[in-house]
Amino acid sequence: MIWLQNRFTLTFPDKLIRADQWLMLKINRDWSHPFLDNFSLFMREPLVHVPLYLFLALFLIINFGKSGFWWLITALAMAGVNDILSSQLIKEFFDRPRPCRDETLAHQIRFIAKYCGMNGSFISSHASSHFAVATFIFFTLRSITKWFGLAFLWAACVCYAQVYVGVHYPFDVFCGAIFGLGIGFAAASLYNKKISLVNTAR
Question: How does DSSP classify residue 110?
Answer without folding.
Answer: -
